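Case study 2.
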Amino acid sequence: MILFAGALLLIAGWSSFQVYTHSSRRAAIKKDYSEVNSITYGLLSVNTWRDHLTNIAMKRISDFEFTPEQEEVLKLQVGGLLNAGIDKADSLVNLKQKTVKGKLKKFVVRALVKEESIREMVPVFSETIVKEILKPENKEALKELVSSKIGEYSDLTHADAPEALLVDSLYSKYGAASLADFNQKIAKQLQGLQATTYFYTYIILAVILAFLLLWLILRNQKAVQKSLFMISVILALVILAAGITAPMIEIDARFQEVSFLLVGEKIAFNDQVIFFQSKSIIDVVIILLETRQVDSVLVGILILVFSVVFPLAKLLSTQIYLAGGERTRKNKVLSFFAFKSGKWSMADVYVIAVFMAYIGFQGILDNQLSILNVETESLISISTNKTSLQPGYILFIAFVLFSLLLSLILQKITASTQKVVAPVGTLL
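Prediction:
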């Protein structure tokens, strides 16, 4: 029995370590994913909008062709510029000249240059200029000129450098060349890690059921009860360690799709993360303590004491109580933790609180995100809430239930022992 139970305990210990490793790695990767796909670096990013608008402008320029109506307007515009130039030249010629040389030049210009003749030729000049502009080689040169100026203006429009550096560093970390490549690689990793984490979680639950089955089979075998109870306590400690270190709840609110129809071009943003957090009990305690604010530190200490320290003290006390002698069992502190500390432990309350927080977050996020859902001809916005409970929550529930059953088993074991010892005491 000891060998069999010990083997199950080793399996549970290895599985708990795997749950912690894979869930922590998944949380870290999901955090990087949320950084890259954050609404800050997407929908609200100056750099992203600059790139989209620059690409639209470049595409429009490359596809640009003059219509007959636009050619007529261009001729009028060129004619206006030519007439403005003639007016300017005429005003310069009519300036009062003080020198003989200046007066002579003015006389020659008036005699040789006929302003009316030049103005009559303006439409011909305009048509010639427009035809020259519309030649393929000149039109391409004009497009390149406009594109280069747009590129210059685009380079002048940028957000802070750390934004681009952060995204580039994460691309490099995962060997991705683009956002699509990054998301594809991350999705595969997250899916694999999640499946592996739940696989080991189910193994731990199976081990718990195996231990309960052992207790059912060996319920009348007093010779093995102490040994089995000791191994069961160690198993409970292993489950507690996995439950408080693995993430319990994952809050994930995002825009599934936001697309705009701008000047005939579609601009789309997918999976824009609005908020993401994935925390274990220990993570929450550390965050509260690091704030160094009295109220937060107090809450952190209370969570640590009533959800971790008390359950841990209870398990150890039950083991010491069962293994100890009569004098040891009379210790009031030991008896309190072994039998009376259950009502002071908030582990079960914490489980309910986390579940209620999950339900609350689900309702609030679903309600608020639904307001952001818009569908018009020029704008489509689809929000989604991917908040979910994680394996840490399942394991913590398993620990709470298993520890309660161990308390009942301890009462039964000690009660049967007292029944055997009672007649002897009476005889004495």
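Confidence is low (pLDDT under 50) at residues 419-428.
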